[in-house]
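Re: weekly structure request thread

Next one in the queue (863 aa):
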Amino acid sequence: MRPIVSALAMILPVMAAAPLPAQEAGPPRPVENGWLFSHVAPGAHTVYLAGDFNGWARNAAGRVSDPAFAMTRGDDGVWRMTVDIEAEEIRYKFVVADESGACTWHADPFVPEHDGDGNSVVDLAAVSEDASVVETACARLRLFRDSGQMQFQVLGDGGAVVQSIRILPLSVGGEAQRGFVGTAGGRFRSGAVELAIEPAGDRSIAVRATWTEHAEYLIRVRDNSDYYGGGERFDALNQKGRILVMASIDRPEVKGTVSYKPVPWIMSTRGYGLWLDDFAPSTFDLNASDREHVRVEGAGREVRLVLVAGPRFADLLGEYTALTGRPRVPPAWAFAPWRSRDVHRSRADVIEDVERSRELDLPGTVLVIDSPWETGYNNFLLNERQFPDPDAMFARIAALGYRPVLWLTPFINSRNAVDMEGIEPGASSNFAEASAGGHLVGDGQGGVMISEWWKGEGGLVDFTDPAAVDWWHGQLALTERWGVAGFKCDDGEGNFIGEAEFHDGSPAATMRNRYAALYLEAAQGYIDERLGGDGVLLARPGYAGTQRFPFAWAGDNAADFSYENGLPTAILAAQTASLSGFAHVGSDIAGYIGDQSPELFVRWTQFGAMCPLMMTHMQTNRAPWDFGEEALEIYREFARLHTRLYPMFAEAAREAEETGMPIVRPMVLAFQDDAVARRHIFQFMVGDSLLAAPLYQPGTHRGVYLPAGEWIDFWSGERHEGPREFEVHAPLHRMPLFVRAGAVLPLLPEDVDTLVETSGGLDSSVTPLDDRRVIEVWPGEGSLDSSEGLRASVSPTGELTTFRLESATDRPLRVDVAHAEVAIAGESPRVESCEWDAGTRRTRITLSPATGAMELRWRRVEH
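Done, posted below.
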């Protein structure tokens, strides 16, 4: 409702006495004497029409009593009024009064567009104007050719309009484009600007505008909602009121709205998504300078805007990732904990990481060897003065169940920073070859564009040139002899690209985002072609589409609890990236920059265990065993939990590959209709069943919100009925973690050390991934349908619970009944043992291996 209006700015004649044409209730429509409004309220005493065209009916503190604004009730219970209106756009509500004169204000249910005050908004000029229409199964776009405006509609069942969004005329070079004329092939032209409108997918419609000269453009979408997405952002989940620069930037210090992985994609709580399909830098002004409009600005000779219909965020992400690429499922071994240092200064450091981890019973599979490790930066020749006898070193890594991942950047150095014994001063050994072969980005003067970076100076590999990509793949192949299984792709952000000349002629401005995408695509291409896909990336830069190449890590964060650059920002970054299509996210445990405290290490470990990527990496080179016995024990427990969750992570990864749904699911995504859940930005779902609420500030208490339904404390088994907000006590060794009632979780046994599968050469002390599985049953009715060929259902009835299982293979299986001591009821030939474990509060039922279906029943044991 608008505030009281004391003067009538635009009171126009009210034609209350005019004959009312027969009409069912609906949105305003033009009639002979003006515009006909209708509202269904058969039991109302009086209904008034109040809008910006009649001074909001001279309301006084929300009460309307002037009969001049009263509508006329028909025998069908529909109230009608015809008004002569000259304005092109109106805002209004219906005011329903009872016999006492008390008034309630209502938006028009037939008009899906509203302003920030909830008023119905109608563009009368557009309604009365002929439009060209493009429609898909779930979306419709109307181009009003004379005014240049567009209307995007989200369609529901039977083609009903669920939501309507208006796009104002495109502005090019400061001029609004109007008066479009249809041309051949379904295109439209206004002066030098041509529009092409076509379906992009079942839920999306693309609008491409082209013009002849380089010019700035402005797209304005009428909206005043909440907005999510925009890439990996560190200081907010809801981007409303912010201006997001869509340019990839490396910033280790306080990041603000800066992003390593900007994505020109937002989802509005009005139920639509907007993707700017353009590599050139742009800005998204999300009601920061204009309360009523989203403003998208950029420059060039063309722009392609893709509008996506929801209204569910899951559907929006599904369509966006279908258009830009779904994340692939990484190899199993990549889901185990990762061990990394800022620098391995010697062979002894490398061996310590893998041997000490095994001695201390710490699960893990990936060892990252960061910079420096070469004789020259990005020449891919191992520095044997730093790592003598490399064949034996890498053999030991493999024997202990680890896969090595090597750091790289896209530079080939012309001058190396000599920060390790064995590094060649001057240029890297492959710089001359790269330069002579034309494999590096040019400077426009016939030479190489040389950029300064934090390991010296060098030229960037020109990934627009297929020959340069092939040459670079040949360089990476120098690492194959050591079983290298992935690459940490550092740098590559747009701020490293100056005025440059690329092989394919792309202007440097567009390459400031595109370069990161080409860099990661080339690295993934090597893994696919040379390693048969059995490898992963660990990427810092990114853009729309790079979610196809797992994993993404959150760059350089501070080792503290600050909201500027510490643990809270990493928690937000995982969620904003997830809402932008990235399914495989993680961060440096326990913050890269600064001095980590044991408490910070533990709390970051607990958060990291709930992410697909769990990796320790600190500039201080500390390891889990450097924070004291208590912290080490806690790390061991959560690293073990993360490893045991592998089958659940794998199922969620397959869902991401099939539907685009991320593994880390912010509350606004998992519970979109719950307004309270949206506010809780430091908790999230892991897949469908786990709700994680990591501590992000020092202390042992935090608030938690549980949405509707029953939830069970993972540690204590205490049951909670949602919706509920409450304070949770979380001593250092515990992170608030809740399980949805009825969950049936696929897990690994507790003794698995590495997610490398059983193979020759593995040390006998290391337990690898095999076909054993644990099915953990939580109270309530639920089911499991696993891509590994396991199907299970749980049905409690009175005192008995019936468990049905079907296995496609004769793998060893154990059923764990969480937080309940149970006894088997009746005969169950496949049950080898049924034992209560008081330490874990699980009843463990071991089954003999067999294929096919089985059924067993149990009842709770009461003491």
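Residues 1-22 have pLDDT under 50 and may be disordered. Residues 508-530 form the longest helix (23 residues).
Next request, please.
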